[in-house]
Design goal:
Layout lengths: L5 H16 L13 E7 L2 E7 L9 E7 L19 H8 L3 H7 L10 E5 L9 E8 L8 H16 L3 E5 L11 H24 L10 E6 L4 H17 L30 E3 L5 E3 L4
């Protein structure tokens, strides 16, 4: 089974992060495997972790891909270097299966297109891999990640898994995306999907919800920004108001997150429903 030496990967990650991101102090970057539980919403734990999706232990791993263009995840720059690139790690662990599916059009990467793969033995640690399409990279908008988050949670609930991990992989593919905003939108979407399914369960229109933990994967250089974005969404939930755009890590932020949030209302369109929680309007 393919494995990476953690010390070697961390060293390369730090070096690449310094070159690519201009980090001033490498000692401030979190090590591989660093994790932090940022909150709990209606029994759903939300975790942030520094890890490659190829090496993540989870029941379902979600990765995101744009429509295929030759060398889009391997040509660096603009794609991240191989040592930092989770998409490359996953593809190599699967012996090039993802690239083959994309090249042949069997997974085109259209927006919100999905493909579920049962991981062959001795490949990924996750027994199931879910591909979610991001559409055309040239017209990508960060707001789309809310719907990616919705799709990931709905598929996880449909599959009946207890936990899943999400890797957005935008920077892996060479997109200079707003990290904090993307992380917050993915979690916002996941919480919206979970709240809708919980409402259906209370109405006798859904099986019990199985997912108890969502882990958002991040590279070391993007951990603090991702944390800020998720905390902004959780704070908005607590105060029952739509979140403002999340600041990046180099901006001042004193966001404090309390556990036990009860109201998954983080959309600009929301309405109260009979069970006392706030239902998110799924319209954009």
């Amino acid at each position: 089974m393919h494995r990476f030496c953690p010390q070697f990967v961390v060293g390369l990650m730090i070096l690449a992060a310094l070159v690519c991101m201009g980090a001033a102090d490498p000692t401030n970057l979190p090590a591989l495997g660093t994790r932090e539980v940022l909150g709990n919403v209606n029994g759903l734990n939300l975790e942030l972790k520094v890890q490659s999706p190829a090496e993540q232990t989870t029941e379902l791993q979600v990765v995101c891909l744009f429509e295929y263009t030759e060398g889009d995840i391997t040509t660096s720059p603009p794609a991240l270097p191989k040592e930092l690139n989770g998409l490359v790690h996953v593809d190599e662990a699967l012996n090039g299966l993802i690239t083959y599916l994309r090249q042949t059009g069997q997974f085109s990467g259209k927006s919100l297109e999905t493909l579920l793969i049962d991981s062959p033995s001795n490949t990924l640690l996750a027994p199931k891999l879910l591909l979610i399409g991001l559409g055309n990279r040239n017209i990508f908008q960060a707001d789309n990640m809310r719907f990616v988050g919705i799709t990931g949670m709905r598929e996880a609930l449909r599959l009946g898994v207890r936990n899943y991990s999400h890797a957005s992989d935008l920077k892996d593919a060479g997109i200079d995306s707003p990290t904090a905003q993307v992380a917050g939108l993915v979690i916002q979407g996941a919480l919206e999907a979970y709240a809708t399914q919980d409402f259906l369960k209370q109405k006798g229109a859904s099986a019990p919800l199985t997912v108890t933990k969502v882990t958002l994967l991040s590279g070391p250089a993007f951990f603090e920004d991702s944390k800020t974005g998720i905390q902004t969404v959780l704070k908005a939930i607590q105060t029952n108001r739509p979140p403002s755009p999340a600041p990046q890590a180099n901006q001042s932020s004193s966001t404090q997150v309390k556990r036990g949030c009860q109201t998954p209302s983080t959309s600009t369109c929301s309405q109260n429903i009979p069970n006392g929680r706030t239902q998110i309007d799924p319209s954009p």
